[in-house]
Amino acid sequence: ALNPYSNKWTIRARVVRKEELRHVSTRMGEVSVFSMDLCDESGEIRATCWREAADRINSLVEEGKVYMISRGMLKMANKKYSTLNSTYEMALGNDAMVQ
To answer: Which of 23, 36, 57, 96 is the 20 to 30 Å CA partner of 10?
Structure first.
């Protein structure tokens, strides 16, 4: 089971929904971001990709395909932005692996 106290995990999940890549302004300048909803036999989770990882992973993943995902960070899900029935959401940064 995934938990926010360890990032030594790998999941095999299907991308069931992928948002468009967008750019948002932050105090550190403009950054790329996109989210995707993932599911496997244990449930569903939202993954949000930031900065260079967003550009790299967005061009790699396709809706409906299955990927191995690792080296992300888990945090409590913000229900304001997600309707998924998941306690956590995943943030994927530069060291995230998707294959």
So the answer is: 23
